[in-house]
Hints:
This is Secreted protein. The protein is mostly helical.
Amino acid sequence: MHIDWAALGSVFGVSLAVTVGLVGLFTLGIVGLTKREAAASGTAGNVAMARTGAYACFALCAAAVAYGIYLIVA
Length: 74
């Protein structure tokens, strides 16, 4: 039995990077929603910008998860 350690390390590295990236992106979405509530006392533009940024982060997370499921099923 031969284990391709380079391929295993590559898969581990990509998995780690994607996991950290998705968690970071989701965290930015949560922070954006939190800032939206704090910015409610400010201008309407700041509230809309915070909400749009948070929803964009969540949409990117959902797209990445959907792509991962597509790769597994296809």
